[in-house]
Amino acid sequence: MIIEDKNWSERLSKIDFAFQPIVNIHTGVCYGYEALLRNYKEAGFESIDDFFNKAYNDKILHNIEMFLREKAIKKFSPLSKKFGTKLFFNIDSRVINSDDYKPGNTTTILKENNLPNKTIHFELSEKYDFSNPQDLVRVLKNYRDQGFSIAMDDYGVGFSGLQMLYYTEPEFIKIDRFFIQDIKSDSKKKLFVSSIVDIGHLLGSIVIAEGVETEEEYYICRDLGCDLVQGYLVCYPEKDIDTLKSYYEHIDVLNKIDRRKASKDHKLINSEIGYMEPILEEADVFNLFEKFKKKKANTFFPVINSNNEPVGIIRESSLKDYTYSKYGMEILKNPSFGGKLSKFVTKFPIVDIHTTAEKILEIFSNHEEDIEGIIIVENMKYKGFLSASALLKVLNEKKIAIAKEQNPLTKLPGNMMIFEYLSEAVKDLENQYILIYFDFDNFKPYNDKYGFRSGDRVILLFSDILKNYENSVKCFIGHIGGDDFFMGIKEESYENIHPQIIELMAKFRHNVESFYDSEALKAGYINSTDREGNVKQFPILTVSAAILELTKNRKEILSIEELTNMMATLKKMAKKSIDNIYYLNTINLDNSDF
After folding, report:
1. Which structural domain, as residue segments, surrounds residue 328?
2. Cβ(313)–Cβ(342) under 8 Å?
3. How far apart (Å, rounded) are the C-alpha atoms in residues 460 and 410?
4. Strand partners, 152
5. What are phi and psi of 385, to 5 degrees?
6. pTM of the predicted structure, to 2 decimals
7. Are strands 373-378 and 350-352 parallel, antiparallel or unpaired?
C-alpha cells in the first residue's frame, strides 16, 4: 500500500507491531494474537488515539488502515504458518464514514502472503459513536462474505453497548480491562462480567477476558465462563515474533491446580457428548440436502469452518421456503444466490468442554428459543453436541455423585472431598492457604441433656452460618462429622480473615442461645454429666477454631498424615486458649512445639 502524503509516509516508516497471545482459558493453548501498534511516539504522536484522530481529520483514515493491515499481516505471516493461529486486527469504526473509504484489498494482501481469509479476525471498538448502524451492518456483511470474523473490542465502555452488539452479532466479544481490574473485590464488576459472558454465549459468541494481570483475575474470569484470556498474566506484547509460543504452560498449570470441581464435570460431559457429523460452511446447499436425505432423523446439522471451529447450525426448517416453493430449487441454483450455506446458518450457543454442568444448564435454559442442546468445543475445535436429554443425565449423575460424598445431615462435602482439598493444598507450594478446624465446646453434655435431635439442630445452625460465609468469600467448607467442621481459604492472609472468623464464632454463640431453656440461659450453664459420669456445670455452647496457614512459596510439602496430626494438636490448643482460637503458620513451624 503506497501512501502518497510524504509526511505520513515518513511517519509510517517508523511504525511497528507487537503481538500479544490470546489463549484458551482452560488449557493455555494459543488461539491467536492481537496486533498492537508500536513506535507511534517515534512517529510523532502522543498516543494511539492521537495517531488515528489525525488520520481521520486528514481524510485518509482508510488508506492508513490498509497500510497498517499490510504491514501487520506481512510480519504475522511466518507466525501463522508456524502455528496455524489467527490474527486479531483492530479497525477504527470511523473508517466506514471516512471520506476515502472504499472496499479494501485485504484478501489480496492475504493472498500475497499465502494466508487464507479465515486467518483474520477484525476487532471493532465501540469507543466512537456510530450514528448509522445500517452502514456498519453492510460493511460487516461484506467482511463475513469474504470469510473474515468480527470481534467486539473494549466491550462495556463505549457509546453503543448492547445496540452495537445487536447489530454486529460478533463471533468474539472482548471484555474491557476496566471490568477485569479489581474484580475480586468489586461485586458489581463480577455481575457485569457474568452478564456479558451469558449474553455472549446465548448469541453463540466466544468471550475473551482482556487485560488479565493476576491469578485472582484469571480464576474469577474462568469461573464466570470466559472462553479465552489475554493480558500480562499470559504474556506481554512482543515485537519479536520468534519469542511467541503456541502453548502457555503456566496457564494450563493454574487451571489444573484449581480444577477439582470442573474436572469431574469434564468426565461426565465427555461421556455424554454425541458426535453429530458437521457440515463445512464452504459446502454448497445441495450437499446439505444430501445429508438430510441420508440422515432422515436429523432436523439440523452443526456447521464448522475449515479449521474445525463451529460457526452455528443449519436447521432443516430453514430450507422449507425453498424446498416447498415452486421456483425454490431454481433460486438455489442461480449463480447470483451462490448456493451459500452462510445464508442459512443460525448462531448457536457454544461452550468449552471444561465448563461446569451448572453453567451449561444456565446457558441452555436462558436461551430465548427452544434449542436442541449445546455445541461443545475443546481448544475451540468442534468436539460434539450435548443434547438436552444428555445434559439432564449429566446433571443427575453429578447430583448422585455429590450426594455420595456429602454429609447426610448438613449436605456439606464430607471427608473424601476434604481429603481431596487438603491433598491439592499441600502440593500447591506457590499459593497461600488458610486451613481451619472448627469444633464445638461442651457439645456432648448439651446432647445428653437436650437429646440428639436438638444436637442435630445445633449442627445445622453452624453449617448454615458457614454456608452464608461461603457465599461472601471464595472458600471450601466441609463437614468432618459430628460437631467437627473444616474450612479452607485460598490466597488470603490470616490478618484479613481473623476478624471474620471472630464474627462467625460470635454469631454462633449468640444464635445458639435459642436452643436453651430460659433457666439455663439465666444461669449461663447447664447441669450434665462429664465423660466419667460426674455431674458438672457446662457453659453455653461455643466453637473453637484451630488455624494453620500454609504460607506462599513454602519449600516443604507436608504429608496428609502430618497435616491432620498438626490440626488435631492445634485443636487442643484452641480449646485451652482464652478466645478459643489458636493460629500457626508454616514459617513459624520450626519454632513451635511440633
Report:
1. 272-396
2. no
3. 6
4. 124, 173
5. -130, 130
6. 0.68
7. parallel
